[in-house]
Amino acid sequence: MGNVLTDRFGRPHDYLRVSVTDKCSLRCTYCMPEEGLAFFPDEAILSKEEIVTLVQHFSRLGITKVRLTGGEPLIRKDILEIVSAIAALPIINDLSLTTNGLALQKLARPLKEAGVNRLNISLDTFNQERYHQVTRGGNLNRVLKGLEAALRVGFDQIKLNVVVIQGQNDHELLDFLRFTFDNEVTVRFIEYMPIGGNAQTSWQEGYLGVDQVFALCEEKGWLVEPVNIDGNGPAKNYQIKGAKGRFGLIHPISCQFCATCNRLRVTADGYLKACLFWEDEVHLRSVLKDFVLFEKKVKQALMLKPKNHEMALDQPESSFSEKPTWRHMSQIGG
Ligand code: SAM
Ligand code: SF4
Fold first, then answer.
1. Which residues touch 182 (CB under 8 Å, ≥6 apart)?
2. Do residues 121 and 158 make contact, with C-beta atoms less than 8 angstroms apart?
3. CA angle, corner 194, sides to 188 and 197, nearest 5?
4. Residue among 18, 20, 24, 28 to mutate when testing ligand 1 (max atoms within 8 A of CB)
């Protein structure tokens, strides 16, 4: 048996999400503030070589699954080289990527050929105008064409990430469910999370539990069955009887998934976050040249990982900063 990264609560960690850039071609309302963000300077961002070394080190520590994210990962000019180099690492058996889909028409096939086996595409609405509003300027047709290209290429799995927000797209849930009838995709309904600036402002008004999807299916008389999807982390997955695709629920707020959390996140500027919500992070970029120090830092971050984000508040004697992260979602990677 190889190495296993385990935290204080016995949770094994085999899944690493690497944000390869904090920059993005969109400005989604739930992810970035309206005024935009000051992006990290180029020299603060991990280079291709650093990302590959980092993943290599993690693979020695027991990580087998990697997701590349951002910001928008496909705006990095060397993204295909990063993918190929990670895909060539013998221990990494699952390489996935999360994208806003804008560049997929051109990049779906090269990504697959370079070694991405699963793809998540963020798409919150099928309505042109609403898409333009939610993303502050995005073009829905481009994403739909990107999705078509990805479906043609034949990834092992394609998921659509739908952040459900009251008054924004909650009336489109049925359309997304219907989309699963004829399309080999998993539509993932994600609860809106209070990360970064939205924690203080729009979050309370926009939050909606995703369990309401079941009531919609019942109203329609659709029979829903649970299904298993490999490598699926916190999502619970279901299929409407007769549908080609599936749907999944990610409910970090209404139903905490922390007990089974198997993931670590590295930000584009090289910090390891063991928990999405809290401020605690350790700098890995500075120890990339020394595996022993690297391992020590990773274990230090795991020791800081709280049991869950509410438990942390119940432990005044703990070493947690008890401050939510200052980062916006685009600076973490989701
Ligand atoms: N730019 C890529 C994209 O949009 O897919 C990758 C990065 S984005 C930060 C990763 C995921 O985080 C997306 O699916 C996005 O919808 C989700 N996300 C961003 N802000 C969120 C929030 N406040 N609550 C829930 N999900 C969020
Ligand atoms: Fe960019 Fe993705 Fe955030 Fe939208 S969700 S602003 S596409 S990083």
1. 244, 245
2. yes
3. 125
4. 28
Distance CA 231, CA 52 (A): 22
- The residue to which tokens 């230090």 are assigned: 300
Task: Provide φ and ψ at 323, rounded to 5°.
Answer: -110, 130
pLDDT (tens, 9 = 90+) of the chain, 334 residues, equals 578 999 999 999 999 999 999 999 999 999 998 888 899 999 999 999 999 999 999 999 999 999 999 999 999 999 999 999 999 999 999 999 999 999 999 999 999 999 999 999 999 999 999 999 999 999 999 999 999 999 999 999 999 999 999 999 999 999 999 999 999 999 999 998 888 766 556 777 888 888 899 999 999 999 999 998 765 556 689 999 999 999 999 887 766 678 888 999 999 999 999 988 888 899 999 999 999 999 999 999 999 888 876 533 434 444 445 677 888 888 888 8
Is 146's C-beta closer than 6 angstroms to any atom of ligand 1?
A: no
Domains of the chain: 5-332 (3.20.20.70)
Ligand 1 atom nearest the C-alpha of 120 is 5
Whether the CB of 69 sits within 6 Å of ligand 1: yes
**In terms of Cα–Cα distance, which of 143, 69, 157 is closest to 112?**
157
Ligand 2 atom at minimum distance from 329 CA: 3
- Reading the block at residue 244, the tokens are 């080609």
Spatial distance between the Cα atoms of 33 and 235, rounded to a whole number of angstroms: 27
Question: Among 110, 20, 30, 34, which residue's Cα sits nearest to residue 66?
Answer: 20
pTM equals 0.93
- b or e along 118-130 (b: 16 or more beta carbons within 10 Å of the residue's beta carbon)? bbbbbbbbeeeee
Number of H helices, E strands in the chain: 9, 14
User: Does residue 26 line the site of ligand 2, with CB under 6 A?
Assistant: yes
The 3-class secondary structure across 33-47, one letter per residue, is: CCCCCCCCCHHHCCC
